[in-house]
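Agenda item 2: NAP complex prediction
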Amino acid sequence: MRKHTFGPTGQQVAVVGQGTWDLERSASAAIAALRRGVDAGMTHIDTAEMYGDGRVEEIVGEALADRRDELFLVSKVLPQNASRRGTVQACDRSLRRLRTDHLDCYLLHWPSPHPLEDTIAAFEELVAAGKIHAWGVSNFDEEKLARAVALGGAGKVACNQVLYHLRERAIEHAVIPFCAEHEIAVVAYSPLGQGDFPKSGSAGGQVLAGIAKAHGATPYQIALAFLVRFPGLFAIPKAAKPEHAEDNARAAEIELTPDELRKIDAAFPPGPRRSGVPTL
Ligand code: NAP
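Presented output:
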């Protein structure tokens, strides 16, 4: 499994990890898929207190508590819980459900009504207590990121988790450059468009199919390989099917040529710069 340095943490983390949204719908298959994914090197696990109202964290705990040492485990606090006290309490609940004593990274799920300085103070309290090793944000545009860096200090914001897939490349205009400049990891969520993937008969789908054939791969794997082409980028596809998890892990090994990168870029252009950050 290829790894990139995860922002200022300096940790080498699997470039393709495992999302967990919606996994409560098929818990037993999900447990098999998560374990198969870890076997294949996808040790970067993304979850959140929001998913299944905590049920998904329980499933992740059930699936992987015995393999905790292998994981880079990330969870997220809901914005409405992200007060100074609320963040610490939410983290304690997540740790219990995940059957662990620490998270590798803890994120604010999206911008919160609570003052960001309070959330950051809580994150720092959790770091001091050893309950989290690093903290980051999600769904932050470059302006909000700049504020988080100003409040937290240089080298504190470990990552920004954002919507990024072939047909949603808006973060390439300003968010990725800001993160590269400040050594913040960029984690692509919904990297397969939440299952709404370019159709095989479409022009873009045909480009992906041609490149996939040359690599003995699937178009989904080519899409993932494209998203993690920059240092500091990660993708966290969700797979409830074990065979999808295996495919996603193999995507990390695919090296696209400059010509293939150009073809994908032309077939799925980034589009114009927009204000804010794209969300689902
Ligand atoms: P996604 O990963 O883009 O797409 C998931 C869909 O793709 C599922 O239907 C899955 O099928 C299918 N799939 C996965 N691997 C495949 C493969 N190799 N070949 C064919 N199909 C494949 O969507 P997502 O769940 O929205 O995003 C991924 C993760 O990002 C989430 O699970 C969550 O952890 C995170 N996320 C974060 C935020 C945020 O606000 N921070 C928002 C959304 C998502 P099966 O499940 O049937 O295998």
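Discussion summary: The radius of gyration is 18 Å.
Owner for follow-up: CH.
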